[in-house]
User: Fold this.
Amino acid sequence: MAVNVALLGAGRIGKVHAKAVSMSEGATVVAVADAFEEAANALAQAYGARVSSIDEIAAASDVDAVIICTPTDTHADLIEQFVKAGKAVFCEKPIDLSLERVKSCLKTVEDLDGTLMLGFNRRFDPHFRAVKEAIEAGRIGDVESVHITSRDPGAPPPAYIQSSGGIFRDMTIHDFDMARFLLGEEVTSVFATASVLVDPEIGKLGDYDSAMVVLTTASGKQCAISNSRRATYGYDQRIEVHGSKGVVSAENQRPVSIEVATAEGYTRPPLHDFFMTRYTEAYAAEITTFVEAINQGQAPQPSGEDGLKALALAEAAVKSVAERRAIGMDEI
Amino acid sequence: MAVNVALLGAGRIGKVHAKAVSMSEGATVVAVADAFEEAANALAQAYGARVSSIDEIAAASDVDAVIICTPTDTHADLIEQFVKAGKAVFCEKPIDLSLERVKSCLKTVEDLDGTLMLGFNRRFDPHFRAVKEAIEAGRIGDVESVHITSRDPGAPPPAYIQSSGGIFRDMTIHDFDMARFLLGEEVTSVFATASVLVDPEIGKLGDYDSAMVVLTTASGKQCAISNSRRATYGYDQRIEVHGSKGVVSAENQRPVSIEVATAEGYTRPPLHDFFMTRYTEAYAAEITTFVEAINQGQAPQPSGEDGLKALALAEAAVKSVAERRAIGMDEI
Amino acid sequence: MAVNVALLGAGRIGKVHAKAVSMSEGATVVAVADAFEEAANALAQAYGARVSSIDEIAAASDVDAVIICTPTDTHADLIEQFVKAGKAVFCEKPIDLSLERVKSCLKTVEDLDGTLMLGFNRRFDPHFRAVKEAIEAGRIGDVESVHITSRDPGAPPPAYIQSSGGIFRDMTIHDFDMARFLLGEEVTSVFATASVLVDPEIGKLGDYDSAMVVLTTASGKQCAISNSRRATYGYDQRIEVHGSKGVVSAENQRPVSIEVATAEGYTRPPLHDFFMTRYTEAYAAEITTFVEAINQGQAPQPSGEDGLKALALAEAAVKSVAERRAIGMDEI
Amino acid sequence: MAVNVALLGAGRIGKVHAKAVSMSEGATVVAVADAFEEAANALAQAYGARVSSIDEIAAASDVDAVIICTPTDTHADLIEQFVKAGKAVFCEKPIDLSLERVKSCLKTVEDLDGTLMLGFNRRFDPHFRAVKEAIEAGRIGDVESVHITSRDPGAPPPAYIQSSGGIFRDMTIHDFDMARFLLGEEVTSVFATASVLVDPEIGKLGDYDSAMVVLTTASGKQCAISNSRRATYGYDQRIEVHGSKGVVSAENQRPVSIEVATAEGYTRPPLHDFFMTRYTEAYAAEITTFVEAINQGQAPQPSGEDGLKALALAEAAVKSVAERRAIGMDEI
Assistant:
């Protein structure tokens, strides 16, 4: 069976997903919707799809699944609309910046037994995936601690910051999901500290650009997350997981891996400087996973529940910074 | 202008090139020819192309260019046929195993002012390309020596060896081209030594599986090539270029770059174990280059002449092993 | 001027310091004291020194300086005795496990204008020192965060744990000193979390074997420390400092740096598995620094004050684990 | 039994060996001889030894062994004199630049059943030794090829070149010994090419500064050696040994191993820039081995025969460059 997919949103990430669909076996882009008509036309034409409105797509009998890449504040409504319309839904994170709204949305999905996959792309990065597989293969024994370094090449513009929900909901949320993915046990407590070291403008907007988070679980496992909105040397994305028998780590990635040695020393090029080139393979793999889950009638992972839990951890981090104490997840 | 491309040969490498064409902007696969009908059908269908015979393609007015991925002994004839038919030609290496036949073929191409690009894919590997760019940017000063390590994961079957022309014409030829590409000066002398250490069957066929080659140029530049038909740890492809100001090197590539540390030590996974996964990007980039050259009316590189020169170096290596002395290129 | 040094304590670390003295230009071991006579004799003989009692050494006119490597609970008394006797004092960390006792001891040193250097050996490791120098040279701009990984190869025996003062005063204290050394700004707040994952016996003694600490400064700089009493792959000692212009890091050290690649992957040997082989150069360099400071009439670093501040951070960490909140240093 | 050692030659390398003797258990420096009195006095004083003449040392009943670090042209005579005097002899390489003189010297040593160890220090480098041990442990299966990169930080002064015997006898000789050490089979054929790329002055003296050598054995094993008198990034000393089951390699060494990452990339410091800091541990270990062999009444390795064979390979390399062909070792 071929899965017919409609793209909601024809922006930067929409294009990435459209390409991923076109390269997945048994999936086709059939329709594209975007408020910005020119973008919709361009994307539709590239893949031989039609331009449609949101409502037309919801009503279309030839659409099996939708990929939601519209602005965050539309996600929850669209998820509900398309689950009601019987479509399988892939939605970019987050579902919403409000925990309450996420909960009500997921209730709807659950009541309708809908199919919802959330776009935590990093779970599909081949290197991080290999870390997970090494853990599952028992190569490091029982997991004891997870260390996540996640630093953006540069700060986003103020306009983005304003509607982002803040560093924990916007940036650390990926790390929260990765922490849950790798710890293998739910987080029970969150401590976070944050400051403004990169750009005072970010501080004026009430947000932070530098953060450290410590998560703990009931059995005493720990996770440290280190975030910054600045990394001059590229997109710094490292993971290290310690266990009773050893440690597994995933190194940073760079576009080319040459080394030049001169009297000044040995120099390798900077890392990828953009999340889309860093996570090219991950974006493709997550869409392939979505398509396969639909074809096999299985619930795709990561789920809406995963999105909810990561957002709750972000909520706890915000509270922790304000109260300068560890926040129990039972308080959220 | 869109370049309409026909594939001659729908095997393993044909599929790779077809995909590369389909992903190149301004290029389309329009026809596929293969003696094995099923293969031709499958490939044609995947890209919405028609199945044609060789002669139909030569005569087709809607075909601008052909990609030749048929067996080696058909290359020279096909190049001549399609250059005469006015098509731009991309041909897998080698043009032929006989130096004389290559020369006569290139004479035909030259007389007809034909367009011919040879598939030395490694020139398009992003890492090796970055080595070249570092040299051209003057980062290591004047090139003094080139060191090429090129070891296959495993030996090919006897049947392949028999029609391969021997290790120097089949395997080292890529390294000869890379040496020329990086030395920036023509090779004047070749010394080679070879032995059978991997598989006695290869020796029975009169070939070798382990070789070392030293090339020199008129100004005293040197190049060392190390070859083996066995590398248990994967496809070992390294380059190191020394110059008056320093050295630039390209490391090996692996599918995933995690590291596991236990009481036994620190372990990273093996390398790519297949040339097609190792050189995925290179295969795509060489076809893109071919298409761009056609669109811009320029002569594509590497040329037929590059193929001829690499083959002549292989010829010299064979002679050197037999005579246990350095062979001047003026002797070939 | 030659500095005549007496060793108080002829155990494991005493031997290391005696050798360092003998290899420092302008310094000689003249006397050794140890409650265990055989040990004193052996060490004295090896360096042509005499065996003396503590009080004899304090009274000896030919002794310029003492190196204290006796059990922790004797440190403060010995420091006071020898400062009063007019000797320059080098003392292994910590001065005492009680913050009050350390304060009163340092008061005595200060009142007498005594010379006291504390044995935070890691400041003298050539790799960590190079990190410090890179920071001071402005290579990473303004320091924003420090990341310290400090994991012991194995847990000490219960008897050691019992008199150690707990993981923060015994193990993390080195990291607290390194954090202060690299942050370049005093720590104002400490958050710590700790658990027992390695050895339940440690838990029964009221101590922890796994900890994470987050330090912050007034200007918003952050430091993360990760500790474990277990690292199967060796003595894991890494530092990473991020600044406005980049990051500088010091890698782990191993006795031999070969790599073996087979079908199973690429394997390097484990790290040093003992602090004395890992920090060989650091131990020698700290004693050389002590001798030079005496010869040049300068106050040696790290000072007693540095010892006090690191201990105060340990105190805050203990309190933070108990109260599950960030502890302001003004509370200690 | 303590071994009493006399130093013949109190220059740079003499100092290194004297220190190594003083740090070896069961060995003492008792006498020093040097034509330059001041040097002899300084070294003798540092280790509580006496200054003596060569002949006094040969006659001294309290001298068990001598370490010869005088100029090359005195080596053979001194070896003979001291073997005749019944002393164990450690001699810096080479025994002599003339193959005939070496042979006659070794004949004398053999006839007198003398003890002679030759200073091929690299065999004692812990990293290269670990390579050897990995081979002996069967980790890479049967050895198939050895790759030696050996590049000096800078060219020696013309005066040194003049009396050096040329690049193969002076510099490559270390690599020839290492090749024999690692191949585990005698070399039967040598091909070499050499040129002047670094310093024209070296060419005017009839020597070369850049060389490549290929060695082969009867069973078809191969070894490639790459030499240059220039390496801007430090003392480049790498070894790679391929076998039927895998490869083992020893990386370069640097004084400090930090890494700084900025917008320009990731930079590590240059390598050691001096053979004495690069091979500090090797120099100490070879003297310890010499002392232990004497104490245990065993013949020390590497032997005079090892020195002879390395020199013969150098001779063959010189001939190969001149005749542009592989030289059989039966021709030398």
